[in-house]
Amino acid sequence: MTETADNSTVTTRFLLVRHGESNVMVEGVVGGPKTCSGLSELGKRQASSLGKRFASGSENSIDVVYASPLPRALETTEILLSYLTETHLVNVHSELEEFRLGEADGLTWGQVRERYNLDNFEQRDPFSSIIPGADSRAGFRHRVGKALSEIESTHSGSTILVGCHGGVISAAMAIAFGLAPNQQQTELAPGVTSITELDITSSKDRGRRWMCRRYNDTSHLHGSELDPRDHL
Question: Is 150 among the domain residues?
C-alpha cells in the first residue's frame, strides 16, 4: 500500500494474469461455462513456469486472489499459488468471466462464422449483442470495470492477483486508457500466462487514477518450448 504523509493517497495494485493454453484453444471451440474443460498439458506447464516466477521472489507479494469461474483461469490460478509458501483463498468472481458468447458456447469458430453475421464486427453497435445470449462489447466493458472497481474498493491498498482472460485484460486496459467501446484503431492481445500490472491510485485531491506499469509480460516463457511464439 502506498500513502502520503497525511494518508490521503492509497494505491491498489492489480496483477492481471491470463490463463495458460486451454483445451478449447487447442480444439478451436468457444469455451464458455458449458464447454471449458481447463488447461491443456502445455497450459499446465506454462502455469507452472509462471508459479516458479512468483516463487522466485521477483514479483510483488500477493495480498488477495481473485479468479474467473471458468476452469482454464481457475486452474491457472491454483497452479500458480501451489508454488507459493503462503496460503491464499481464491475468491471466484463470476463477473471476471471471459466475453460471453451465449448460445455459441461449444461451437467451433468456423461454425460461429457460418451461423452468425460477424462482418464489420468492430463497426457494429457496441451496445447490441450479435449472438443471442452474448455480451455486447459495451456491456462486457462495463461488467469488467464494475467488477474491478468493486474489488478495489473492498481491498483498497492491497496487491491483488486476478486469474482471468485475454478479453478481461483488454477491457481493463481500455478502461485505464479511456478508450471508447466502439474504437477500432487499437487491438490488444495479451499472451498466455502474461502478467499485466495496473495501479489504481485514489486521493482526495485528484480522485481515482489508473496507471499501467506493464502489459503482457511473458518473460518466464521466453526461450523455452513453452513459448507459443516459437510454434507460430
Answer: yes
